[in-house]
Amino acid sequence: MNEIRIFSPATVANVSCGFDVMGFCLDSVGDEMVIRKVERKGIHITRIEGFDLPYEAEKNVSGVSALAMYDAIDVDFGFEIEIYKKIKPGSGIGSSAASAVGSVFGMNELLGRPFNKTQLTEFAIKGEALASKCEHADNLAPAMFGGFALVKSVSPLVILEIPSPEDLYATIIHPQIEIKTAESRALLPKEVALQDATTQWANFGSLIHGLHTGDFEVIKNALHDVIVEPHRSKLIPYFNEVTKAAINAGALGSGISGSGPSIFSLSKGIENAINVKDAIEKVYAKTGIDFDIHVSKINSKGIKIIN
Amino acid sequence: MNEIRIFSPATVANVSCGFDVMGFCLDSVGDEMVIRKVERKGIHITRIEGFDLPYEAEKNVSGVSALAMYDAIDVDFGFEIEIYKKIKPGSGIGSSAASAVGSVFGMNELLGRPFNKTQLTEFAIKGEALASKCEHADNLAPAMFGGFALVKSVSPLVILEIPSPEDLYATIIHPQIEIKTAESRALLPKEVALQDATTQWANFGSLIHGLHTGDFEVIKNALHDVIVEPHRSKLIPYFNEVTKAAINAGALGSGISGSGPSIFSLSKGIENAINVKDAIEKVYAKTGIDFDIHVSKINSKGIKIIN
């Protein structure tokens, strides 16, 4: 096998109470990539469609993670990477993470899987860092492992796969506005009240318990963010209206996807998720702001080979 | 049935990363109480052994929780309470919680169980508040439900029962020193760094996952407290020596039990727990400070009727 085509999924990081440590994987949104073994040594990005991104491997998220992996192996051949980008960079649903895991996952498959998924994520962190200026894995881990992933720590990298109920669905709206990462970061409080922090870990522990037991009432009660959302939601137009409409339409909870501007909602069953989509569309249709909206099953497999 | 004898267990609150929201229940340490239906209306504490505590119901933790429950029922009889106190007040292993749950659990049994365990815990919160000056349930919940209990919120009271592996054991040392609650509270930071808070909920989420999956490596990696322990441990003599000795002897983790001065360790299997006990004894034997030390299985049942 000298060539492989893969689907590299979009992901939702933070998941309300799990700021910086939790993410889940989407099914219906993702990039496609082709990875090819070639005689010419090194990493070569030969095609990019969808968005305008650099071809130089050192300046491309996929390229940087691929180079990190290439440096760790000793081979007399190289790899070509084609990127069919469907996740808009800056949308807040793990666009860079999808690019970063895609190249290393594909190369690993072509090499006969010398690395496990945690090792691959370590390479991908290098690519992710190019985009986000810091080493984090809360989009990478769910893209690589699927389902809900808890990044217990980055150094050493410890990823825990959290089970989730079969009929959990996500609705994601991506308002077509740009939020500068620097602006979003600047809004993060450096210090938080101990009482709020305590509420947050009570919620996060409950979320883990609710996902394990498949108890939707527990999941619903856990999906609150008292730490980051009050600050960052200011950058997202009509955030409160969207989350209120989602909850009224039957969502378990709603929150900022990553650092935004996308907003995710979780629902029990696809019917609820579609009702939530309809309710959110109604809110946003009035605003004059362009948007994409998706309903997706939680993708329990993560990144995968396609034909 | 007009009289009941109960075992009301000691408990460990906080469990390192679960400050204010998590506790577990002990098997080998606890109070005994006798609750008796009598003609004379009201709540009457008729016997207290072990420690010197007030007989007036309004001034006694057991009495206050019993009165809270008594106010919620309409009966033409009363209750007598006998308390055989074995958990020293102020030891940090839920002495007041054991007293608070004991009376209401016993009364509920004699009444034919009109209340569920969460409702009983709501009454017990009133008694606990007398001792600790604030309404909290992280000792009450594990005493009432057994095992590991996560207090998701106090108002409304939501308690989640977290499963735990069969062969998990606790070692508890209680140095015979007094820590004033006010002093211990004063050491709590009002604000914490967002980065530390994030580490704490990553740990706490991991602990919940480790308990669900019975993965001792995950439990071990999760048992860290970067928020409260660095402050409160200063009040406990030889804290660092004890936790170091415990880890070296094979403990999964060690931390402050409640607000101290007791220190808990968790171990896989009773042999490890006994090794940990021996190692801690060696440390404390040299200090000249009196201490009690116990090894206990995690008590999965909680408070219970005895003959």
Brief description of this entry?
The structure is a homodimer of 307-residue chains. Chain A is of the alpha+beta class and 307 residues long. Chain A has helices at 61-71, 95-110, 117-132, 140-145, 181-186, 194-213, 216-222, 229-232, 239-248, 270-285, and strands at residues 3-13, 22-38, 42-49, 78-84, 148-154, 157-162, 168-175, 191-193, 253-256, 263-268, 291-297, 304-306.
How many strands appear in the DSSP assignment of chain A? 12
Q: So what's the CATH class of the largest domain in chain A? A: Alpha Beta
Low-confidence region ranges of chain A: none
The pLDDT mean of chain A sits at 96
Task: Describe this structure as you would to a colleague.
- Chains A, B: Its EC number is 2.7.1.39.
- Chains A, B: Catalyzes the ATP-dependent phosphorylation of L-homoserine to L-homoserine phosphate.
- The structure is a homodimer of 307-residue chains.
- Chain A is α+β, with helices and mostly antiparallel strands and 307 residues long.
- Chain A folds into two domains: 3-163 and 301-306, 2-Layer Sandwich (Ribosomal Protein S5, domain 2); 168-297, GHMP kinase, C-terminal domain (Alpha-Beta Plaits, 2-Layer Sandwich), CATH 3.30.70.890.
- Chain A is 36% helix and 28% strand.
- Chain A has ten helices and twelve strands.
- In chain A, the strands form two sheets. In chain A, strands 1, 2, 3, 4, 5, 6 and 12 form a seven-stranded mixed beta sheet that branches. In chain A, strands 9-10-7-11 form a four-stranded antiparallel beta sheet, with helices on both faces.
- In chain A, a hairpin with an 8-residue loop joins strand 1 (3-13) and strand 2 (22-38).
- The relative contact order of chain A is 0.18.
- The model of chain A has no long low-confidence stretch (mean pLDDT 96).
- The A-B interface holds A 17-22, 150-153, 158, 160, 162, 188-194, 197-209, 212, 218, 221-222, 227 and B 17-22, 150-153, 158, 160, 162, 188-194, 197-209, 212, 218, 221-222, 227.
